Amino acid sequence: METLRFPSHTLSPFPFTHPSPKHTLNTAVSLSAKKKSTIEGLSEELKAIASQNLDFAPSRRRVREAFSEVHQQLDHFLFKTAPAGIRTAEWYERNSRGLEIFCKSWMPEPNVLIKAALCFCHGYGSTCTFFFEGVAKRIAASGYAVYAMDYPGFGLSEGLHGYIPSFEDLVDDIIEHYRKINERPEVRDLPRFILGQSMGGAIALKAQLKEPNNWDGVILVAPMCKISDEMLPTAAVLKVLNLLSKVMPKAKLFPNRDLSELTFREPGKRKVAGYNVISYDDPTRLKTGMELLSATQDVESQLQKVSAPLLILHGAADKVTDPLASQFLYEKASSKDKTLKIYEGSYHGILEGEPDDTIFAVHNDIISWLDCRCSVK
Q1: Which Pfam families does the record associate with it (predicted)?
Q2: For residues 199 and 225, what is the distance between their CA atoms, to the nearest angstrom?
Q3: Catalytic site includes residue 23
Q4: What is the pLDDT of residues 182-226, one digit of tens each?
């Protein structure tokens, strides 16, 4: 295992601030429209489209369609170097809770033997498309069937944008969907892995804890598995927020903080991130914030129960999720096969926001780890 010096100052995976209870009450306003687009070089028509209310899935789907050609022209390592010949499919399916879920797959070329299934869990506010398209294509080109879905309320799936009424339900949605994926004929008898990024790391961990024998390995990228104590709201504010979450759960009460500078080390890649126009970047909804806090506390209390083969990847300079928490997870997990890799100087977005050579190295580390565990099957 690579041992590196960790930064002394880190921020929590959830950008809490410490407003007074009075300020919290006065800011209980749910925005009715997305803020005006600040993307440079867009036509006025596309700016208007990007600025519309994205609360519900039909509008998010229209916006994504309107930007499809623009996305194909973006200047980013992931898009420019994506392997050709990858077979992709997109579809919608209704889950057991009656929600229409957006799903996507990336398959290697027909003449490439599939080694395993890899199921992806995206981060808070993000989507299973856009940047992950490039990541998925690279992994698929190495012989893996890659699957992903947008959570209810995120991306192209149904649900109020950015709203997580129950983190446990969200985990169950993931388990339900990927259980069906793992029964598909093309991957039914193959190893199965789950990859979680940031908040998706907490989801992947909880999925493994609920079904410990269902995965041949868990890959965590800058996982949200602990919130630093110093970043939590004061006890008084937390009490107010908890009470308010019961009466106005959908209100966007947590002050917004732009985390793009903490996620993308390279300014050029930070600008490209703005084109993921269906991501959620408004102030966090009250119930969502409380659910994220509860989920990280639950995960932290069960780290010793994590038993699957484990790969943890984290940027040493990450100030969104704490790399020390990944070190703690590595030490506490009961997994006999576990690996921790820390990337010196790297920020939160190690899959997409670093210099090209670092992104390439992170992807290669994931693929190499998968290859080693599939070769013995």
Answers
A1: Hydrolase_4 (PF12146)
A2: 8
A3: no
A4: 999 999 999 999 999 999 999 999 999 999 999 999 999 999 987
